[in-house]
Input
Amino acid sequence: MSDLYPTIGLEIHAELLTKSKVFCTCSAEFGGEPNSRCCPVCSGMPGTLPVLNHTAVEYIIRAGYVTNYFYPDLPKAYQISQMPRPVCLNGYVDINVGGTEKRIRVNRIHLEEDAGKLVHDEATRSSLADYNRCGIPLIEMVTEPDFHSAEEVIAYVEKIKLLYKYAGICDCKMEQGSLRCDVNISLAPKDAKELGTRAELKNLNSTKAIARAIEYEIYRQTEIIESGQKVLQETRRFSDTTGETTALRSKEDAHDYRYFPDPDIPPIIFTEEELAAIKDALPEMPQQRKERYISQYGMNETDADNIINDKDICDFFEDAIKAYDKPKTVANFILGEFMRRINLGEMSMDSLKFTPKDLARLIELGDTDKINKNNYKTIFVEMINTGRTPDAVCDELDLWVKDDTSAVEAVIDKLIADNPKPVEQYRAGEQKVFGFFMGQANKALKGQATPNTIKAILEQKLKG
Ligand SMILES: [Zn+2]
Output
């Protein structure tokens, strides 16, 4: 085995959730007919004047606050030119890998504009350009090379996705490209004073691709070094199909880019008051929500983590308890049946047919004995598939509790007549047989009586 040790740094590009682009009023929404969302400014026509989107700058400051940046020398830290002079410097993010906390240093976050997309058409041997994405505000976050495994990188990416989503600055849809990662990786003996030569892996668009690309690159560089050759400094592309990385171009150093300030964009200066206002307006972050769930709602730490770890589910929970103020009961349903159906692929948060209010209503109906909780699953599956309200489902499938005692009595009389042996056992003191009768009665009554009613009548009849 080799004693080569991987060192990994990360760049995360996140498209900001502003309504318009960074220097013009074109829509920054995802998709659209090619070139339907561009104008002379974002397509770079001569003579146009960029006007900086103030929200984009506020969002990058939010990104700074949620990744623990300090602002020691305020005003002069806020110059932005087309040369990315970073808005935020020297932050950190704590990650947890296999129960161990680790601090990842963040070098900087800066604002830039996204580029358009090229579509290459083999048939006509031409390339078509779509400028819709041109000029969408993009923040780039660069970490220090603090990672030493794919697991650490993935834990970090997941944490950033969570923080950016809660901060409301990016939807973090990797499959749509609104969050993309570049990974640079080098190998060196563990006690080496200098890092090895790094390769940069461009535009990884899923956590799975990140893990596979890192694993492959560790393998590739190990082979090169152990055969006595040198790793080249280059940019590489990862293929989902082959699971391998291939060279894209040899890497330029930063000075090759020849940055210079854009005279059309003056330095942006925020006062301390403005910064404080942005900080105060930050939405509630996952850690705060978690603490609130534990202290106010009495949730345990694991449950609280499981709810906050998906912002869409967490927001759904928040809306549901607005409609039915029983946080613990609603949380239990979401942590159980709700997440189970998501994990089974039977529903997804992107295309839910029912509302938080509908779910709240279902739980309330069970709590108030209007329906039997044994019917939760049946009703919930209907809500998932058809989007009908729980009330509509109960009407249609005749699931309302009627508590018609004569119907309950008839069912129990028949059960007792059909099962002389268990009756005998119960009367001889075998309490556990009671559960058998409860189950059978529930099944026969299809949830139209509450367990309390069934229990009372059953107890009385079994006594004989
Ligand atoms: Zn435009």
